[in-house]
């Protein structure tokens, strides 16, 4: 019985005593970064009919890629001699938290606002590369 599916219901499908032993014996145990990356939602949905500028979409994509990179760096920093207790490890995870917070803030602003955050800039600079429009 393979008890690893990484869905929210995996804990219900495995007996409590077998869950830990089957996970430890499995070669499919994910790294923390894989769990972290899988937990991210996709791009923030735009409200029906609203336009979204290319610069906003690229900012969201760049922040997502930066989170993946920072998680990998944090995992590497925590694999040293001192491990999770080292100052470098703590600093690396603080950086992950900061970038994650920036992405969450961008998504919150997109969800809360009826207009794209680049709207004022794009009204003054309609020919700017960031002002290309994605229709959803």
TrEMBL record:
<protein>
    <recommendedName>
        <fullName>CP12 domain-containing protein</fullName>
    </recommendedName>
</protein>
<keyword id="KW-1015">Disulfide bond</keyword>
<feature type="disulfide bond">
    <location>
        <begin position="122"/>
        <end position="131"/>
    </location>
</feature>
<dbReference type="InterPro" id="IPR003823">
    <property type="entry name" value="CP12_dom"/>
</dbReference>
<feature type="domain" description="CP12">
    <location>
        <begin position="63"/>
        <end position="136"/>
    </location>
</feature>
<dbReference type="Pfam" id="PF02672">
    <property type="entry name" value="CP12"/>
</dbReference>
<feature type="disulfide bond">
    <location>
        <begin position="78"/>
        <end position="89"/>
    </location>
</feature>
<dbReference type="InterPro" id="IPR039314">
    <property type="entry name" value="CP12-like"/>
</dbReference>
